[in-house]
Amino acid sequence: MAVQAGSLMGTYRRFKPHLLMGLAQVGYTFLYFITEASFNHGMNPHVYITYRHIVAGFVMLPFAYFLESKTRPKLTVALLLEIFVLSLLGVGLTLNMYFASLRYTSPTFLASMVNTIASLTFVIAVILRLEVLDLRKRRGIAKILGTLISLAGVMTMTLYKGPIVKSLGHPLIHFRGNTASNENWLKGSILTVASCITWSIWYIMQAYTLKRYPAQLSLTTWMNFVGAAQSAVFTVIIKHRKADWTIGFNIDLWSTIYAGVVVSGVIIFIQLWCTEQKGPVFVTMFNPLSTILVAVLAYFVLGEKLYVGSILGAVIVIVGLYLLLWGKEGDQDIRTKMTEQTETNYEEHEDPKTQIFSSTAKHMKEEP
After folding, report:
1. Strand, helix or coil at 262?
2. Where is the EamA domain (predicted)?
3. Which residues touch 194 (CB under 8 Å, ≥6 apart)?
4. Is residue 320 part of a domain?
5. What is the band of 146 on the pLDDT scale with cuts at 50, 70, 90?
């Protein structure tokens, strides 16, 4: 019984990052719809981003202050500057472009384009040697194939429509349709692509920052407050009327609270933890899950049109995702071997006096 329990715990620990990232994508899925509803209600996306991260900052602050009081490194000027850039890439610049594009496109298009982040992040990570890639082994080839197949699936969902899947009934919820012109759709597409590029850089930069500041709760809090300040400065310039900043007890308030607590708070903390455990590529390669969930919910709940191209692209994306996941399963074994080799080399080159002391201490510890 104890052996079985230990085996289950071992399996849970092994797949804990996978489970957390899956739940994170569910959280992102609901974000697309509640945000679109809020924007259709009249909420300004830039005001929304500012309020959202203020809420997230205050929610995460007590957890960061009390739980990481002894482990949190001291802030330096260089580290503060790094957090400022990290906040700009993750909040101030990227999210303002991203949610501004939602006003000109659609949740399904936005969720599809986000999947390119995984491919961009993988390429950058390989160049910067943050990602283990050995083309002489099957797992290394699987990573390349998985990335290319996932990207092909994304392009299929984005560029190929095909026949419309027959609707099964009336939509459960109705949102005011997006009446953006082709010009606005082009503007939205450009903003989406630009945000995907800066988002990829943000994921990569997280891996570097976490090495110098390994306190995920505190880093999440800092990014929320600094990002909110950056967004506020930009928003005040373009939206300086009091009416623009006023929200009522309606969908605008609920979308802000949900995005602040769940997405900018809990999910960002989960992503930072998974980035430290598995690397930035692992975090981004789960993005296709939210794309599929958005398409399914948009079809069944909102009554949006579903095309054969979207279904075909989703299947291709899933195949690529599983290939990439299988390829990355060997990374942990490689890191473990590298760590063991480093420890062995350290022991071999250890000072003789230190070796005698360590051997004596070990012997004393083993005595009854």
Report:
1. helix
2. 23-157, 187-325
3. 97
4. yes
5. confident
pLDDT classification of 306: cutoffs 50, 70, 90: confident
Can you say whether the dihedral through the CA atoms of 98, 99, 105, 109 is positive or negative?
positive
φ, ψ for residue 164, nearest 5 deg: -85, 135
Task: Please name the amino acid found at residue 140.
Answer: G
Task: Provide, rounded to the nearest whole percent, the portion of the chain with pLDDT above 70.
Answer: 81
Cα distance between residue 107 and residue 66, in whole Å: 38
pLDDT value at residue 76: 92
Residue 276 tokens read as: 């430290």
Cα-based torsion angle of the residue sequence 114, 120, 122, 124 in order, rounded to the nearest 10 degrees: -140
pTM over 0.85: no
DSSP state of 188: H
| 268-278 helix and 2-41 helix, angle to the nearest 10 degrees | 130
Residue 345 counted as domain residue: no
Q: Is residue 337 part of a domain?
A: no
Neighbouring C-beta atoms of residue 4, cutoff 10 Å: 8
Range of the domain at 97: 16-331
Q: Count the domains in the chain.
A: 1
Euclidean distance between CA atoms 207 and 216, whole angstroms: 11
Distance, CA of 156 to CA of 93 (rounded, Å): 28
d(CA 134, CA 150) in angstroms, rounded, equals 20
